[in-house]
Amino acid sequence: MSKKSKQKYWKENLRYLAILLSIWFIVSYGFGIVWVEGLNTIKFGGFKLGFWFAQQGAIYVFVVLIFIYVMLMNKLDKKYNLDK
Amino acid sequence: MDIQTWTWVLIGITFTLYIGIAIWSRAGSTKDFYVAGGGVSPLANGLATAADWMSAASFISMAGLISFSGYDGSVYLMGWTGGYVLLALLLAPYLRKFGKFTVPDFIGDRYYSDIARTVAVFCALLISFTYVAGQMRGVGLVFSRFLEVDINTGVIIGMIIVLFYAVLGGMKGITYTQVAQYCVLIFAFMVPAIFISIQMTGNPIPQLGFGDKGDDGIYLLDKLDGLHRELGFHKYTSGNKSIMDVFFITAALMVGTAGLPHVIVRFFTVKRVRDARKSAGWALLFIAILYTTAPAIAVFARTNMIETVSNKKYAQLPSWFSNWETTGLITFDDKNKDGKIQYLADDTKNELIVDKDIMVLANPEIAKLPNWVIALVAAGALAAALSTAAGLLLVISASVSHDLIKKMIKPNISERGELVVARLSAVIAVCVAGYFGINPPDFVAATVALAFGLAAASFFPAIILGIFSKRMNKEGAIAGMVTGTLLMLFYMAKFKFDWFGGGTKEDWWFGVSPEGFGTVAMIINFVVSLIISKFTPPPSKEVQLIVENIRIPSGAGKAHNH
Q: What's the structural domain count of chain A?
């Protein structure tokens, strides 16, 4: 594998990390902590939205984020022929 | 059958299972002993990681903690799950590619320095010992509460079981017993939760049930907020802590999770880099089942408890109340002598003190569930405590036999010799852990926060920088780890144990509690590392090649000894 394609691979990986970690940060620290009071004015069923994110929603998003990363990286590995 | 008989039967069956697995999966080489041969499937590793991670605290204490703190309990829920995103995205794949046996291995090689290795070994031992003491105590507590044996006898029984499969099987034995232990603990956690959810809301899924309506047509959470207002507590769905503190505690727990050596080493046991990513996903999925159920249990138990005891005649309470009173975990003091229980936020009028651990342990009794369900909770709690203890003991024994003896003191030790030393250090580690379980130091309550704070302040920045910055050198990493660790220890000592003049809430730096200080210490570690490395020579070409190499997933050989 050439040095150049190694660098390209790493750059694409870093881009995925930046996007996924931003979502990670927003659902937990944003929705669950900083904006919790505002979101609590919205209700669905018996849940206040901010409270729900802090005790349920953020965790579901975390799980989904990891599996999305797994999928993206498997694709990326294939593209650069690194899946051997 | 009564509860005691059921408990003995279920504990007997599960312990036999663990021992059976241990005999079947004996370790034959150091590779078996440290990384289970390096061929564990992602699914099995996910299950094992989940059991490894979920301790006595997750199983017994967490739902109770949330039950008493409401929204503030979210720090544990988000903190102890969000760290897996960091693990999966920033650490696990690269450390797996690096392909060694321990965390100090990585630190020592990446920073080409035995000083760095020694600092890492010291941190790994400190973190693991503080953590394991609590687990052995948990084992003792479960035995004493459910089987009426002495707490110390309980600790010793637990020690013998762990000794058996950790020493015989090493990581290989631990991995497959952890798979079984996950199944036991999740079943034991979910069955009562589902029962109670149906009882209270008619919804069999607890995660949805606690947002549902009760028999009276009122949403459970609204009812609980109302009850809290009546009794003078803060609203259940909003918190008491400052946003700032919640933010820092959550961050410290997340980063600490990602830096705990007994969690990180689990990712050395899979075959390929892609398996490391995938097993992090499985692990979090299995953990999330328990972690999304815990807040539901918290709400059910809180409502149930208040409705059962508040303003009720003491003489007419159900039998579980007096059962738990004898253990000293519930205390009632009839201050106004009216024969009724006043449960209030105001300390001068409140007559009832309930230990947080009861919320999970007594919940099935409070909800009048069948005896076998109550016994199941005991078996589940033991599975949670034993699986975590075993994972920690392995880190301790590998730190001694591999990082200290093989890598530094006696490099020419034979494979068989190293295996003997590894087993021997596991035996000693179990004995030390047992000693702390029987004679718990007074700081046990503070230790969990300490372990996470230390992991965040020491390992996390060193590993991240080692992967994402080619320029990071040994001077920077060592200075960062030492500053971070010392600062964390200092802050804990000052505000938890009253050393160095002590201090109260008002004296906290930037208003951050000791639980959240790991985040501050971590940031300082990063800053110190980056500044020092700017003024010191960059690492050699070879080391920079190592970094380039771990970023590329292909060609990850099995974890090897070199």
A: 1
